[in-house]
Amino acid sequence: MTVETRTITVRRDVAAESQADAASERERLSRRGTLVVNLLSSPGAGKTTLLEATARSLGDRYSMAVLVGDLETDRDARRLSPLVPTAQLTTGGACHLELPLVRRGLAALGDPQLDFLFIENVGNLVCPASHDLAEHLRVVLVSTTEGDDKPGKYPKMFRTSQAMLVTKLDLLPHVPFSVAAVREDARQIQPDLDVMEVGALGGAGIDTWCNYLEQERACRLASYL
Amino acid sequence: MHERSLVRELLRQVDAIRLQHEAERVSEVRVRVGPLSGVEPLLLASAFEELVADSRAASASLVIDEVPLLAVCKLCDRQMEVTDFVFRCRSCDGNVHVTQGDEFELISVSLSESVLAEEAVS
Fold first, then answer.
1. What contacts A211, CB < 8 A, 6 or more positions away?
2. Number of domains in chain B
3. Which end of chain A is less enclosed by CB atoms within 10 A, N or C?
4. Pick the CATH number of A16-220 from 2.60.120.430, 3.90.170.10, 3.40.47.10, 3.40.50.300
């Protein structure tokens, strides 16, 4: 007996199939007029508070829903559901959301016709960066309490985002955080990044953020609306 | 740590190739990993070692080719290696387009089978 070996050349991205799947889901949602926004940050940066303020501001003019990802509990869904239709996605320990979970969440809501679908990802600046959830817009949040040196530590997250929101602006007088420094650090990684500042509890910057969302929807879905 | 789910997907693809070529065993899996792939080579290697044992590719070894991050300036077309994740052109400060380094690619799969000596000769 001898062993014969042959090498098959493949040269294909391991994620090629899931990337194509995400692209077709994005296309399906585009045709329905839904802008999908993937919100990412460390735990506790203010994603849920931002969504509460966003729902209060845009909720009467647009149909919207939230899919909220956490390892465990439905605490965020309970906070958001009085304001906006929300489905909780629990990953059971996994550090990021994947498209099948998003589809399950949409189905749980009855796959309604939406103007905006927000996906609140698991709080984590690492793994979620590698997973396309069929979003049109990837928005990363950095809170003033986290420090202005975060972008350089998590380059993939900032490189693959279209916008960065500096959150908890009302705490700025109490913490050593420079908005100019975080902006500069992030733009070394992604020079095209749109940067906004919000203090969602007091409402600062929420109008600018909501205008941005409306413009992005009009612009990115122009050929579908 | 999402390397385990990536390895599961990788092994699924490897086994599909093995079946397609009607091979007995997988002896080697070669992948290419860039600095912006979100894949940490050390974690990838340990996840592979752990998961391959229970798969149809149980005897396979993993070869990881680590490639540098390369880009071309969107404004002045200068080609460069991106270091320290600074994605700005060194000549004109413009944004760059990444041409290599964000991939986690399956490059090749080596398949092997035992054959009788006389068959191997013919």
1. none
2. 1
3. N
4. 3.40.50.300
How far apart are the CA of A19 and the nearest CA of chain B, in angstroms? 12
Q: Give me the CATH number covering residue B29.
A: 3.30.2320.50
**Which H helix or E strand runs over A116?**
strand A116-120
Q: What is the pTM of this model?
A: 0.92
Tokens of A190: 């992604």
Q: Which residues, in sequence order, are bridge partners of residue B37?
A: none
B80 burial via Cβ count (<10 Å: 0-12, 13-18, 19+): middle
What percent of the residues of chain B are helix, what percent strand, and what percent coil, each to the nearest 5? Answer: 30, 35, 40
A9 in reach of chain B (CB within 8 A): yes
With left for phi above 0 and alpha for psi between -120 and 50, is residue A163 left, alpha or beta?
beta
List the structure tokens of B54: 């229970």
Note the pLDDT tens digit of each residue in B87-121.
999 999 999 999 999 999 999 999 998 887 765 55
Q: Is residue B63 part of a domain?
A: yes
ipTM attached to this prediction: 0.88
Residue A174 DSSP SS3: helix
pLDDT digits (tens, 9 = 90+) for A30-58: 999 999 999 999 999 999 999 999 999 99
Chain B CB contacts of A156 below 8 Å: 36, 38
Looking at the complex, does the CB of residue B9 fall below 8 Å from at least one CB of chain A?
Answer: yes
* Nearest-angstrom CA–CA distance, A164 and A167: 9
Name which of A72, A124, A134, A45 is nearest A98 in CA terms: A134
Domain hosting B38: range is 3-67+101-113
Of B21, B38, B103, nearest to A156 by CB-CB distance is B38
